[in-house]
Design a protein that fits this description.
about 475 residues; 9-stranded parallel sheet; 11 helices; elongated; disordered N terminus
Length: about 475
Amino acid sequence: MAKAKHRAGAASNRVAIVIMAAGKGTRLKSKLPKVLHEVGGKSLLAHVVVSAAQIVPASDIFAIVGHEAYLVRKALDKTGINFVHQQPQQGTGHALMVARNALKPYDTVVVLSGDAPMIQPATIRRLLDFHLAHAPAMTILSANLHDPTGYGRVLRRGKSAQVQAIVEEKSASPAQKLINEINSGFYAFSVPQLQQHIDRLQNNNPHGEFYLTDMAGVFQKAKLPVLATEAENPHEILGGNTRAELVQIDREMRLAKCLALMAEGVTIFSPQSCVIDSDVVVGSDTVIEPFVQLLGDTKIGSNCRVRSYSIVENSRIADRVTIRPGSLIEDSIVQANAILGPYTHLRPGSDIGEGAHIGNFVEVKKTRIGKGSKANHLTYLGDAEIGEGVNIGAGTITCNYDGSAKHETIIEDGVFIGSDSTLVAPIRIGPNAYVGAASCITDDVPQGALALGRARQTLKKGWVAARKKSRNAASKPAGA
């Protein structure tokens, strides 16, 4: 609704969102740009983009990039947002100076921080709606913190929404330091008034930078209104400046994700021990045991059970699937009623059919396994197409790599593969065929045939006794 509302009013008040993402984040002591550090399974900046994109279309979002700009662009390229390069980085005010041309078509701009991933669309919407309703030159999103240490304080005119000043902590008086309302660094501006007055910002500070916060004073001098509206949840505006802060944010986001899933009917026995990314979807009546990780773009159906120490990443798990302990599933599909594990490894490209059983220490890679088929023990299946009702014996491997290229193994419906078999691809095993245990199969097997690829068993009666007699004779001293 919000996107349609603000887009529909584009002719009269077109809205852009600018996200500050140019900083280095020196306190993280990292070569990676600050906004690309991850919490909750996504980069800081990606979280902010997701929230912003629920307010305006991606084409109206602009990320201000600077430090390692190429990496930031590459990481967010698929989102469809725009990028403005700030070089050199001379502060938040300078960032909007650099974005001047990009903002010309717009009437209103909302400014967000790329390192504050907990910001919610509803809070951005309230800031924007407040600004559009009151039409000041600048609206500040404030927050009331129990401990405001380190933040600039918002000084209001009495109890009104009008802002008298923003005072940085180092310049605040003892009385002002007792104020708990702080400047979050999130703003909304009238673009025409911002463009007209932004050149009045000064950089006469120890860092020689232009600060967007100072626009409040610029507008005050121009007798233009500056208002503040308070965030309902102050935690949303908190950013991550240190590793410890990032870990704390990650913990809060993941706990919130677990609570949201439980509210939708998912059982999570130990939320504090589970790692569940923001985009994960889980159906009702599914049980998640302790120490499970559900990562990336993973969707799990209803009535499943994911047992302890299993990891599922970028995969689709249908209804009523059991994932036993210690299983690893990556970029794969698992159909309904399948049973995996314990200690199954599904590598990318695996597609496990309905009711199939993939068991202990079985590795599957780029392989489709049909309905009701089983590979229960100590097996490797790579680059294979396996039909329905197939039994793969323990210790079977598909030899899919010849040293330079991969080749396909095709096992058709109803095949029985005996234990410890080696299937040298490319090869096809026809319907209802049998492969004897310990066989090395190098040629296609026709329908209904038995294939044996091993030497004939040889028996030497009395061999053990003869061997013992020979060894005893050899061990006697000479002349005994």
